Amino acid sequence: MIDNFHELEPYALNREAKEKLVTSELLILTDYHYNNCEFYKNILNSLGYSKHNVKSIEDFPFLPVRLFKELDLKSIPDDKIFKTMTSSGTTGQAVSKIFLDRDTAILQQKVMIRILSDYIGKNRIPILVIDSPATVKNKIMFSARGAAIIGLNIVAKKMVFALNEDMSLNWDIINEFFETYGKEKFLIFGFTFIVWQHLYQEILKQAKKFDLPEAFLMTGGGWKKLISEQISRNEFKKRINEVLGIRHFLDHYGMVEQTGCIYAECECGRLHASIYSDVIPRRFEDFSPCEIGEEGILQTISVLPHSYPGHSLLTEDVGRVIGIDDCPCGRKGKYIEISGRLKQAEVRGCSDTYAAKF
Q: Interhelix angle for 102-120 vs 144-153, to 10°?
């Protein structure tokens, strides 16, 4: 049924219409994974799951995201594995392994393009990646950082890496890129702390300034280290604007277990769920769904995981739904705020695990 989603714009459906479409797709996915993943089948049996009891998105069972660190969860035979993606982790941490067949990998890329196009337009644009090319060298097993970069390659007219293999800033590349594309629309992509540490701080040291009025800065994760240094999201944007002249910011929330379904930041600074995804904050004491504005543990929904049972997950992140269908930017659906990680949860995001080295 995924083709039904592609016929619509990513933020076209109101709450009632989206609920109906996503619930139908999740019923199909849950049945499929039940019949093709023995671990998942055993879990659902132990929970007493019955599709006849599902009345809304909130009724679907969820797996704790940590389970992907403990088990090889897949709904495809080994000879259909096209790529394996791994989550970020500090030294000694177990990492999640996500197994993709070719169709799921293509679907993830297609949806990423559709979501980004709603923000930056449908034309391919130059992309400056604030990372090292070494991050994407392994073509079979990607880290979360590498997967995110590769996912953007399909919307790139040209992709250039700004950092050398030792993560130092390559000034020749930076100067040439900004001179060539500085007055047109382009995308700078990097995980938040890496952008802060290896782009902003280095430009600051050199006392340089650039004026990039049409550029979009797309970041994700990595706020833990910055917040500990009293750098809020607004302060981050202010500082970046001062040295780069950037006015368009596109932060996002996402995870390797649900690649493609990012929650992207609109012009009003709010993170939006598209028609391909949903989020349900759940209360700490009993996992019941929270009300709008109430903070809880985030359950994330995605209709994209067809090769592994990652369509309904309980994360280790805390946040809240701010509103539904009424953001001033005009996009329908839920918009959310991420508060941080559960206490005692491992450092996990691409940017946060990298920041742990500093």
A: 70
